[in-house]
Each structure stands twice: as structure tokens, then as C-alpha cells.
From TrEMBL:
Domain of life: Bacteria
Biological process annotations from GO: DNA-templated transcription initiation
Residue intervals of the RNA polymerase sigma factor 70 region 4 type domain: 116-167
NCBIfam families: sigma70-ECF (TIGR02937)
Protein name: RNA polymerase subunit sigma-24
UniProt cross-references to InterPro entries, sorted A to Z: DUF6596 (IPR046531), RNA_pol_sigma-70_dom (IPR014284), RNA_pol_sigma70_r2 (IPR007627), RNA_pol_sigma70_r4_t2 (IPR013249), RNA_pol_sigma_r2 (IPR013325), RNA_pol_sigma_r3/r4-like (IPR013324), WH-like_DNA-bd_sf (IPR036388)
Ranges of residues in domain DUF6596: 185-285
Domain named RNA polymerase sigma-70 region: residues: 21-79
Molecular function terms from GO: DNA binding; sigma factor activity
Length: 423
């Protein structure tokens, strides 16, 4: 294996293991900022050693043990936090001959959920909670978080730094909350799971259109959360949404990893077990009654697609109505854009074009590829190919995802009657 191949492999391992690593270290040192620093120290050591020694059989355990050693040395050197020091000594008993399999047990898995609740503590602002959780648990870069919220990268970085300092100063415990404390954090936890799942479902940047590991982790923790708070309809709604969306993975990309749009997907490839699980979760949400929340509404939309054998059989009128309801309780230009797509399928592209006209000067969408992408599709359906070409190429220039850029340029170049060709 070349050094470049080794580094790519290490980066892939890091994306998979970093959240567990940071969560387990936070349990030990009770400082989420320090835990992240220790995890990155272990990554740097792996980058130095693994290209020569080879990738270990259990790389996650190797990283955990290396990070624990760094923590041990640091605490011994500085003589800080004597209680933590003694606890770590017991944890690291026999550390010169570590049991790698024991390092990544169920306790570390449970630590992931604790980490999310810790980072969603009410002492932090909503924006800080979400940014910190996405960074630590979701493994998203500051750029990816900035793109997700359509804000500057420097703003995201500042929020994360301040959030770590606040948690450290307040000595927020690394425990699962109970009662009212749990309820106070639940909305933020759901939002974090939702955003991480979305990043996995449609990656903001990089060479891959989807990042299944993020979706799998979000769904796994969503299922755990549904057991923890079984009477919360929105928890079941979010689980339902993630189950149904996950069912499409095999159909969403081609053999070379290229994106396949919903209307072009082979629905035979949709995972029927995940669809059934999603519909069951939606039924549980409905049985609990109460006011429709945003996750339950989106699960209803996903269910409309899941129940349709073909794209043409989809109940677009119901989907448009559901997006209208979603816009009432959770207004955003992205919701309006999705509603426009549903309206175009139900009533034609002309109506949808008129509907999105007020969004043309929206500050949130000005640097997003989503608006020109939707406009390009609507214009292409009307045969206004020159305008569609301009919109697709503009969308391609705005997206940070290589696969999505390729798709948009391909759509532009395939438009008949245009003298230009996408480069």
C-alpha cells in the first residue's frame, strides 16, 4: 500500500471511528474539548505509523488505546485532576498489553448518546449546541456545518470554541438526563440527528454523494432514543423518516457512484424491510396523537413515496399539502422550494416557477445550488433550454459536492438545442 493509499484509508477509518473515540474519551476525562484534542493526537500518530507498519486489525481500538495513553501521560505530567488520574489508572490497568476488543464495548456505544445529550445542554445556545454536536458526533467539518446552515465558516468555528469552553466551565456531567432535563434537550437532540442523517443522505461536499455511515449511526441512535422516550411522537416520526429514506440507498447511486434522482430510481431496489419498519414507526407516532410536528410531517411525505410503485403514481397533491403544513409550523425557503417541486408534479412547471419567484432574492438561498437546480429542472420541462442550461451551470458552480456537480453539468450538456456544452 502506498503512503497516499494509507492516508486515504486512515481518513476513512477516522470518519467511522471519530465519534465513538471522542465519546469514550469524554467519559474518561469529562472534558469534551480535551477529548477531541486527544482523539486528534491519536489520529496524527496513526498517520505517522500506519503507512509503515500497516493498518491494525482493529483500528478503532488502536486509536482508543493510543488516545488513552496520551491522556494518561498528560495527567501524570501535569498532576491535574487527581481523582480523574486515579480513575484513568484503573481504566488503563495493563495498558502495555491492551485488550483491543474490550476497548470498544457497549459502554462506548452508549457514550455516543451521552455525548449528544451533553452537547445539547440548555446552557448553550441552540446554534452552539447543534454546531458542536455536528462537529463532535457527526464528524462534519466546520465548512460542512457552515454550508448546512448557510453561514460563514468562521462563525461556526467561533460557536464551537465557545461551546466547549462553556461546557468545561459549567462542568456539565457526561450522563443521560432524566425527566424534565431530558425533555429540555430532546428537541435539540432530534435536530442534530436529523441534520447528521441529511448530511449522510446528501453530502454537502466531497467526492461521494452519500455517506451511509452517518445515516446508519443517526438511525441507530434514533432507535435507541425511541426506546428511551417511547411516548414522544416526534421521536417516532424522525425514526420513521430515517428508516424510509434509508430504504432508497441501493437505488440512489449507480455503479460508478453517480447520483440517481428519485424519479429515475428502480424502486424494486428499495429495501422493503426498512420501509415496513418506517411505516410501523409512523403508525406509532400517529397512535400517540397530538399536534403534527415537522418530523412526523416529513415522514408522511416519505411514506407517500414509499407506497408508490412508480414516480407517476405518487400522490403529489398530498405531498404539496404536507409541505404547506410543514411550512406553517417550520417555515423556511427550503421547505417552499420542496413544495414547489411537488406543485410542479401536481399542476405543471409553470405554476411552480411562479411560486418560487419570491425566493429569487432570498438571502438564505443566494449562495445555495438548490434554487438554480430546481429552476433548471422546471425550465427544462417547459422546453426553455437556454435558460435551463444557465441555471444548471450556475447550480454546478455553487455546489461543493463533486458528484452533484457532475450530475448538474451532465443535465446541462444533455439539453437539446443548446450551442454550449458543459465543461
Amino acid at each position: 500500500m502506498t503512503e497516499a493509499d494509507a492516508h486515504r484509508t486512515i481518513e476513512a477509518i477516522w470518519r467511522i471511528e471519530s465519534a465513538r473515540l471522542i465519546a469514550g474519551l469524554t467519559r474518561l476525562v469529562r472534558d469534551v474539548g480535551l477529548a477531541e484534542d486527544l482523539a486528534h493526537d491519536a489520529l496524527i500518530i496513526a498517520m505517522e505509523r500506519w503507512p509503515e507498519s500497516g493498518i491494525p486489525d482493529n483500528p478503532g481500538a488502536w486509536l482508543m488505546t493510543t488516545a488513552k495513553r496520551r491522556a494518561f501521560d498528560m495527567l501524570r505530567r501535569n498532576q491535574l485532576h487527581k481523582r480523574k488520574y486515579s480513575e484513568l489508572i484503573r481504566e488503563m490497568d495493563g495498558y502495555y498489553q491492551p485488550d483491543f476488543d474490550a476497548n470498544l464495548g457497549s459502554e462506548v456505544e452508549d457514550d455516543l448518546l451521552r455525548l449528544i445529550f451533553m452537547t445539547c445542554h440548555p446552557i448553550l445556545s441552540r446554534e452552539a449546541r447543534i454546531a458542536l454536536a455536528l462537529r463532535l458526533w457527526g464528524g462534519l467539518t466546520t465548512l460542512e456545518i457552515a454550508r448546512a446552515f448557510l453561514i460563514s465558516e468562521s462563525t461556526v468555528a467561533q460557536r464551537i470554541v465557545r461551546a466547549k469552553r462553556t461546557l468545561r466551565a459549567a462542568q456539565v456531567p457526561f450522563d443521560l438526563p432524566e425527566g424534565r432535563d431530558l425533555e429540555a434537550r430532546l428537541a435539540s437532540v432530534l435536530e442534530v440527528l436529523y441534520l447528521i442523517f441529511n448530511e449522510g443522505y446528501s453530502a454537502t461536499s466531497g467526492e461521494d454523494w452519500i455517506r451511509p455511515v452517518l445515516c446508519e449511526e443517526a438511525l441507530r441512535l434514533g432507535r435507541i432514543l425511541a426506546e428511551l422516550v417511547p411516548k414522544d411522537a416526534e421521536v417516532h416520526g424522525l425514526v420513521s423518516l430515517m428508516e424510509i429514506q434509508s430504504s432508497r440507498f441501493r437505488a440512489r447511486i449507480g455503479e460508478s457512484g453517480e447520483p440517481i434522482l428519485l424519479e429515475d430510481q428502480n424502486r424494486v431496489q428499495w429495501d422493503q424491510l426498512l420501509i415496513r419498519r418506517g411505516l410501523d414507526a409512523l403508525e406509532r407516532a400517529e397512535s400517540l396523537g397530538g399536534v403534527f410536528g415537522p418530523y412526523r410531517i416529513q415522514a408522511e411525505i416519505a411514506a407517500c413515496h414509499a407506497k408508490s410503485k412508480t414516480a407517476s403514481e405518487t400522490d403529489w397533491l398530498r405531498i404539496a399539502a404536507l409541505y404547506d403544513a410543514l411550512g406553517q409550523i417550520s417555515p423556511s425557503p427550503i421547505v417552499e422550494l420542496n413544495r414547489a417541486v411537488a406543485l410542479s408534479r401536481a399542476f405543471g412547471p409553470e405554476i411552480a416557477l411562479e411560486f418560487i419567484e419570491p425566493l429569487m432574492n432570498d438571502a438564505v438561498l443566494k449562495d445555495s445550488h438548490q434554487l438554480p437546480s430546481v429552476r433548471g429542472d422546471l425550465l427544462a420541462k417547459l422546453g426553455r433550454n437556454a435558460e435551463a442550461f444557465a441555471e444548471f451551470t450556475r447550480a454546478a458552480s455553487l455546489t461543493r459536492n463533486e458528484r452533484e456537480r457532475e450530475l448538474l453539468l451532465k443535465r446541462a450538456s444533455n439539453l437539446p438545442g443548446t450551442s454550449n456544452s458543459a465543461k
